[in-house]
Amino acid sequence: GIPRKPGARWTEPGCQSCTCQGGRVLCDAVSCSVPCSHPLPAPAGGCCPTCTGCLHEGVARAEGDVFSLSDGNCTVCVCLAGNVSCLFPECPPGSCPSPSPSDCCSCTPEKCHFHGRTYAHGARFSLDGDDCTTCVCQGGEVECSFTPCPMLDCPQHQRHLGPGQCCSTCRDPPAPAGCFLDDNGVEFPVGQIWSPGDPCELCICQADGSVSCQRTDCVETCPYPIRIPGQCCPDCSAGCTYMGRIFSNNETFPSALDPCLSCICLVR
After folding, report:
1. Checking phi first, is residue 233 left (phi over 0); if not, alpha (psi -120 to 50) or beta?
2. Which residue range or ranges hold the VWFC domain (predicted)?
3. How many angstroms separate the Cα of 229 from the Cα of each of 28, 166, 232, 234?
4. Residue 17 and residue 23: Cα distance in Å, rounded?
5. What tens digit of pLDDT does each residue of 102-122 get?
6. DSSP secondary structure string for all residues of 54-66
7. Burial per residue of 143-173, b for 16 or more beta-carbon CB atoms within 10 angstroms, e otherwise
């Protein structure tokens, strides 16, 4: 019963978002974007949850409210913009959390008895005669770990572990005396030029041990050249290749397509 202008938008009961388009009313459920983790339910008459407070474990909390968890483990939480953030108190060395919220760090942690010795909570020590292993006492339990070593970017045969050291180091690589090819195990001296199997490709061994290769570009100057095995570019001076046969210069032969035609191989 209410006239609406084209393009008008409004909300109907039941959280339906409607718009007037071309004389028709199109309605969809209201899409809510909630930018918080613990929103409050939608207020009366509203469609979307609100971030002006927090709903945590079924209890509504006001903005800025500070509270403790129901299990009483000394955790303190705060409601900020619909998000609940909780903090657990850090106890100083020599103490541990207590079930009492009034005094969360009152108990005394257990000491560690290890290899005939007694260590206080939090103590760090090395194993007898092994400076590469570090141990720590945590509440009566001893945890040991190897000293972390940096990642090395050299191959295994260049790594070296010196006396009294915990981690390997990289030796200086020897100066390259040539180029070693892993595919066939051949080593070429610096300055050596060779073909790797393709007659159109030549490679040279550089002074730093690297290999530089370059291909030869052929320019064919005749339509029927002869291709010589092992030679990169076709030969236009040795004769002609025609219909799978090789003819020498100035040689006359009948055409394979027409026996009444006579052909001649000419060098141009």
Report:
1. beta
2. 1-52, 52-113, 110-171, 177-237
3. 78, 60, 8, 9
4. 16
5. 566 666 677 888 888 888 888
6. EEETTEEEETT-E
7. eeeeeeeeeeeeeeeeeeeeeeeeebeeeee
DSSP characters for 38-107? SPBPPPTT--S-BSSEEEETTEEEETT-EEE-TT-SS-EEEEETTEEEEE-PPPPTT-B--S-TT-TT-B
Task: Dig out the tokens for 267 from the structure.
Answer: 């060098």
Percent of the chain with pLDDT over 90: 9
pTM, two decimal places: 0.32
Question: 9-32 pLDDT, tens per residue?
Answer: 888 877 888 999 988 988 888 888
d(CA 214, CA 188): 17
Question: Which pLDDT does position 129 carry in this prediction?
Answer: 67
DSSP state of 161: -
CA distance 112 to 254: 105
What is the Cα–Cα distance from 166 to 148, expressed in whole angstroms?
9
Asked which of 18-27, 50-59, 132-141 is least confident by mean pLDDT, the reply is 132-141
